[in-house]
From TrEMBL:
Molecular function as annotated in GO: polysaccharide binding
Annotated signal sequence range: 1-20
Main location, first listed in the record: membrane
Domain Wall-associated receptor kinase galacturonan-binding: 32-97
Membrane topology, from the record: Single-pass membrane protein
Annotated Gene Ontology cellular component terms: membrane
Organism field: Panicum miliaceum (Proso millet)
Protein name: Wall-associated receptor kinase galacturonan-binding domain-containing protein
Protein biosynthesis found in the keyword field: no
Top-level taxon: Eukaryota
Keywords: Signal
Location in the cell: Membrane
Length: 141
């Protein structure tokens, strides 16, 4: 089975948890890091205990992998996490790097070349919901 490195754009449904009265959402909660390396980490996402809105959705919790220079924010279980390269609350999306299967199956025996038929799982036991793969700014996946 071949694997390819693919940039995925993930749509975030509940990312509108931030205050509706402020024109600029707060970047992070007090005492919480607002960056990991070169990537801004806006609330409801967060790094560390009590820094993410996990009561709304556990997927908001990120890790900062300091073994890279600069450090990289990661999503998912530590052993198989994917790198987060951008979070945009304005556009309601998170961009990540991750391995995606080249062959997708429409049944137990039929191979499809359409990405849209593939079931995409995030690292660990997390199913893709509430995230959905999307074309990258007009480019087909």
């Amino acid at each position: 089975m071949q694997e390819a490195l693919l940039l995925l754009v993930l749509i975030i449904y509940p990312a509108t948890v931030v205050s509706a009265t402020s024109s600029e959402p707060p970047i992070s909660l007090p005492g919480c890091p607002d960056k990991c390396g070169n990537v801004s980490i806006p609330y409801p996402f967060g790094i560390g205990d009590g820094c993410a809105a996990t009561s709304h959705n556990r997927y908001f919790a990120l890790m900062c992998n300091n073994s890279f220079q600069p450090p990289r924010p990661m999503f998912g279980d530590p052993s198989i996490a994917v790198e987060v390269i951008d979070i945009s609350l304005e556009h309601g999306e998170v961009r990540v790097y991750g391995d995606v299967s080249y062959n997708c199956f429409t049944s137990n025996t039929t191979v499809s070349d359409s990405f849209y038929i593939c079931r995409v799982n995030m690292p660990g036991d997390h199913a893709i919901d509430p995230f959905h793969p999307q074309p990258v700014h007009g480019h087909r996946l």
